[in-house]
Amino acid sequence: MRRDAGPVRRVTVHVQPRASKNAVGETDAAGRLRVAVTAAPADGQANDAVIALLADHFRVPRSAILLERGKTARTKVFVLRGAHQRAGT
To answer: For position 85, what pLDDT does the model report?
Structure first.
């Protein structure tokens, strides 16, 4: 990622894999953004689905999102470049 790609934001996400639908929810009491994906947590499918949802939610390209921590955990930290705050998030 380029350093001049705009503001950098770290987002802690709690992922619910194998959900009934893909959705970005509200922030929980711990400050984690709740994300549900229909994908299974195998072969990085759920991580890819979360990146796609975050890209749409924050209106950035997928390439602007990097999984920093939590590759195999439900709680993950993503780095977003060029992300702007959306209302309610």
So the answer is: 55
